[in-house]
Amino acid sequence: MDLLGVVTVISLFVSFFLAFFLLTVKTAHKNSNRIFSFFLIISAIDISEPLISLITDRPSNIGMFRNTVAFLQIPAFYLYVLSVCYSDFKWKSKYLSHLIPFLIVNLVLAPRFYSVDLASKLDFIVNRQNMMELQFTHWLFHFQIVSYFTAVFLLLRKAKKLYLENNSGESLNSYHWLFQFTSVLGVFYLVVILKNIFKFSDYPYISDWIKIVILVSQLFIICWYLYKALNNPGLFRNIDSKLKLVSDLILEENKIDPETLNEDLLKLKKYMFDEKPFLNPALTIQDISKEMNVPVRELSVLINHQLGHHFYDFVNTYRIENAMEMLKDSTKSKVTILEILYEVGFNSKSSFNTAFKKHTGNTPTEYRKSL
Description:
18 helices; Rhopdopsin 7-helix transmembrane proteins; Arc Repressor Mutant, subunit A; 2 domains; mainly alpha; about 375 residues
């Protein structure tokens, strides 16, 4: 077995191992795990070609079908991101529409490949550069990659904005991680596109070299995901898909009376000062709405639009102000910064330092020393 075969075997083992782990681990978020397991299994099938070629080098219906399974990869990843972003994600029959490209490709290949004899199949593969079906398949695959990754990045952008407008917790790190993972996968699939372009050019051997790079890269990407998954089991799932962005709320016909907003602002400031709800690390705008008896819509427009701050930054401002008071208090000079950040509502040192420096221009340590 050559190097390509060895890398393929390792990649398949890691992919199936992680898929098995995700399917069997006990969690309340089974949908996300199942979808990503499906993505891993489909990806493993897609990269198994070097092993299959050791068994037979003849074109077959199963071999071609294995190639078309790649059309299920990106839709599966999109649904995975969707399931992770929204806490109320449920499987819907409309998601079956993501199968359409996969079905179209197989229908296109049926007349001149699936339904013909071996000699015709062989001729089809030998002359693949002139076969409209294969050219259509590759262009459709490239279009699918660009379309779905655009959709994923737009989805992440909206979900992050909804989170900032409605939550004050520390789940932003998960958004950053998923954005990084999506970016890495995006680059990976751009390399796949490059491989396919060379496959239909006058330099097909370059495509073979890129294939080795893809296999090695996929192995590292899977291992990276496994490392992240084991170290960060609690991905964010704090957004309700029914929530609306403030930019959409202010465009609605039933405008909120400015006088009502001013009254709510005074009421909000008093509530934040008296009750100190920001001490709750998982505070949401829905929590404040319930306690103040003010509609979420009015509160969201007030904070995220009128005050010009995301709810996330709005709450952190109160936390930082409270932390500053504690740092100034000489009787609390023995209290560590770590203890202070937990006491004021943060649960991450990095997020506390970032918010503190954004608010004061100094780190907590520098601020304490300057007093």
